[in-house]
Design brief:
Layout (H helix, E strand, L loop, with lengths): L3 H4 L11 H6 L10 H28 L6 H27 L4 H24 L4 H30 L2 H21 L3 H10 L3 H37 L4 H8 L8 H7 L1 H35 L3 H5 L3 H4 L14 H29 L1 H28 L5 H25 L6 H34 L3 H48 L1
Length: 505
């Protein structure tokens, strides 16, 4: 969907930018007429990520980490992958019946209602452990689904040329949302909420999601109004855009779209493989921290007295002391995950602010797509020689920070050259089922390595190196397919522009 008014403004117009545009151009190649929509979208995804990062630490504090956590989480990850099959099928059917603003309203309202149900289940006396299991599954579905839906919406609003320039600014909202949610004042808010703070935070997240609905509908109305104005002016492409803006998508399922397109299937494989790498990396850093804490423990006898299955490599984080109240355990886990997210999001913010737009400009989509796999390949290669805590922490922080900023923006931009149905349905399928599938395969590989092979953490790093080598090859194939799609789109647009140019001459 081309933005007729914004594409006309070229780099030469930079001298006419006001102070606001000059400030925004520090972070993205924003041109006259593009700022308002990009900032509204940035605010929308900021609120989505704020809601998610409010909920994400609750997932861990409710599903209290114990000696069986690795097994439990791998099973729950598999359950999420299976559930995503049904979720995507239902979403695809709904998307073929209602226009995009209604689709976003209904799906987001569904997740808000779920949060209210969790609150009511707690008030009704539901036990914490089954609540934690249900909430763990729910958060995994909610997170991947709403973000995929948002980027489908954003792709629907932009042409390829404008989207590549403005997405770094839009994605900045996501990075800021993740950062704000884990700042120290959020811990203060949690303490002010008092008893049952977990479930009160759920309601706060629900209010934030309601604001996301309001924003999405406002952005949609603004886009429709702008298209009508362009149509009245007789701008090229406005008539075609107006015909589809408020119509449902064509019939067809998200998985069918993925498997019939080589381009989309390559993207799905890339995302699945990278999530395998990332999940395995999370196991590595958790295990290194566990080993370090055991070695540094002043009461060696207490550590030696632990049950064998609790102390063996790969058993997960040490079980919380039964002497501590459950609320103290939950807050300790909540604090640990918020601190880790804060470090990662600070790195992501720096990359998003000062590097993403410039990398897009200097090396294009292809170079941006290859950046994270190559970075991670080098990092895990070093870890394979010795998993020292300082090295592992540095590698994981930069890997996740790059993923949350540059990689997420690049993955979204890959869908700028796809059809509307692919932007919503196929992207939702890829960003949910294939993501969780990669996590699940990683969990199974970790369990096999623990239970059957007794592998050291360095061996898992070596496994990641092999997977990343394959990932680099797939990324090169995606870049070639992307260029072919873009060339085909440019060739299709060119004949329509020739008569207009001739008439103008």
């Amino acid at each position: 969907m081309a933005d007729a008014t914004t594409t006309a403004a070229g780099p030469g117009a930079a001298t006419g930018y006001n102070l606001g545009y000059k400030l925004l151009r520090l972070f993205a190649d924003i041109r006259p007429g593009e700022a308002a929509k990009a900032l509204l979208l940035a605010l929308n995804v900021f609120l989505l990520l704020l809601a998610y990062y409010i909920l994400k630490p609750l997932r861990e504090s409710l599903l209290l980490v114990d000696k069986d956590s690795a097994v439990v989480k791998s099973c729950l990850g598999g359950a999420q992958a299976v559930l995503f099959v049904f979720v995507i099928k239902a979403f695809s059917k709904l998307a073929s019946k209602v226009p995009r603003h209604v689709l976003i309203t209904w799906t987001t309202s569904f997740f808000i209602s779920n949060l209210v149900i969790f609150f009511l289940l707690h008030r009704g006396g539901m036990a914490i452990k089954p609540m934690g299991i249900l909430f763990f599954i729910w958060v995994g579905i909610f997170n991947y689904f709403v973000i995929a839906q948002f980027w489908g919406f954003a792709n629907d609003l932009y042409s390829d040329e404008v989207g590549k320039r403005t997405f770094p600014l839009v994605a900045l909202g996501a990075t800021l949302g993740g950062l704000v949610a884990v700042l120290p004042f959020m811990k203060r808010l949690r303490d002010l909420l008092g008893a049952n703070w977990e479930f009160k935070l759920m309601l706060i997240a629900g209010v934030v999601l309601f604001l996301c609905i309001v924003l999405a509908r406002a952005i949609h109305r603004r886009d429709v109004r702008k298209t009508r104005e362009d149509r009245e002016k007789g701008l090229a492409g406005a008539e075609d855009k107006a015909r589809v803006q408020e119509k449902p998508l064509k019939a067809g399922g998200g998985f069918k779209l993925v498997f019939k397109s080589r381009y989309l299937l390559l993207i799905a494989l890339m995302i699945g493989l990278y999530n395998f790498v990332n999940a395995t990396g999370e196991f590595i850093i958790g295990q290194v921290i566990l080993n370090q804490s055991i070695q540094a423990a002043p009461q060696v006898t207490a550590a030696a007295a632990r049950p064998a299955d609790e102390a063996r490599p790969g058993a997960g984080l040490p079980a919380a002391s039964p002497a501590l109240p459950r609320q103290t355990e939950a807050k300790a886990i909540h604090n640990a995950f918020m601190d880790y997210q804060l470090l990662t999001n600070l790195i992501a913010l720096v990359i998003q602010l000062f590097f993403v737009s410039r990398i897009f400009k200097w090396v294009g989509i292809g170079g941006a797509l290859l950046f994270l796999p190559v970075l991670a390949l080098g990092g895990y290669a070093m870890i394979s020689f010795g998993a020292v805590l300082v090295l592992v922490r540095l590698v994981k922080a930069f890997e996740n920070g790059t993923d949350y900023s540059l990689q997420n923006t690049t993955k979204a931009a890959l869908f700028l050259v796809t059809e509307r149905e692919e932007k919503y349905k196929a992207k939702a399928a890829i960003d949910t089922f294939f993501v969780r599938g990669g996590d699940t395969v990683s969990a199974l590989a970790v369990l096999v390595g623990i239970e059957l092979l007794g592998l050291r953490v360095e061996r898992y790093a070596l496994l990641n190196v092999a997977v990343l080598a394959a990932l680099v090859f797939i990324c090169l194939k995606i870049v070639a397919a992307y260029r072919r799609r873009r060339s085909a789109a440019d060739a299709a647009v060119a004949p329509a522009e020739i008569p207009e140019a001739a008439a103008g001459s």
